[in-house]
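Open question from group meeting: does this chain pack into something compact, or does most of it stay loose? Before anyone orders reagents, we agreed to write out a predicted structure and look at it together. Recording both the input and the output here so the notebook holds the full record.
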Amino acid sequence: MKSECNRNLSEVTEFVLLGFRTPPKLQILLFLGFLLVYVVTLVGNISMIVVIKMDSRLQMPMYFSLRNLSYLDLCYSTVIAPKTLANVLSSEQKISYRGCAVQFFSFALSVTAEGFLLAVMTCGQFSAICSPLLCPGHTSPKLCVQLVTGSYTCGCINAAVQTGFTFSLRFCGENRLDHFFCDVPALIKISCVDTFVNEVGLCILSALIIITTTTVILVSYAYILSSVLKIPSTHGRSRTFSTCGSHIAAVSLFYGTEFFMNAQPGAISSPEENKLVAVIYTLVIPMLNPLIYSLRNRDVKDAVKRILHSK
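Structure tokens returned:
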């Protein structure tokens, strides 16, 4: 149990983000690498949003969800990347207490909403493959808007609770975060009060979210697999599997990283490994999602060709 902080110590008003321990000669390379990833993320997700918005054949519930996935990827990469890029080249890697809280809230909202949105998209595929005759009713625009709104609402509630739990802690004296953004483990580590209740509460909340969304995804894909195996022709099975390929890849990336971070407490043995995994889910996944959905989706590729040919 952590000891109570000395009352003579002043409360922390800003944090120092220690970032990556790289030699000065490699700082420029690190900056250029992050900048490249962020630019590709911006171009890929904005292009996906524009293509879906402009092409009339993509005005379907499935692509409405995909457009919102791009919004979320843009949001949480932008919450992290610009500050990280600035800190890589800066001698003063500081963030205010309020700025830290806002950054964490925005990040938690976007990531949680994306987890629920991926589950919603899986349900859409379940309806299209397992109940094709009922699919229009199950994925009506109104229902799709409600499900996407529900994803954002769940994200907002989780972010508010996690931010409240984390920033209700006292920080006094020590203000150096061994991370490149404001994340819960790094903040809890430097708190000067007992964090047991906060850690348990946050752990239970995270577990509920992960278990709920992964259960929906696994059950949906179990039914999808069962339906696909009943298709008599090999070509039919292959074509149906290919429609799920992009989403399976996106879900595997997102939840694989989440499980690695949360389901195995001893899996990450050092802060540097923690940062490396954090780079994957804060910067790499938002960059890969539009590439996965565009390169493996015939409708999106055809829409891009139509837009280019119309100019």
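Observations to bring back to the group:
The chain has a mean pLDDT of 87.
Residues 97-130 form the longest helix (34 residues).
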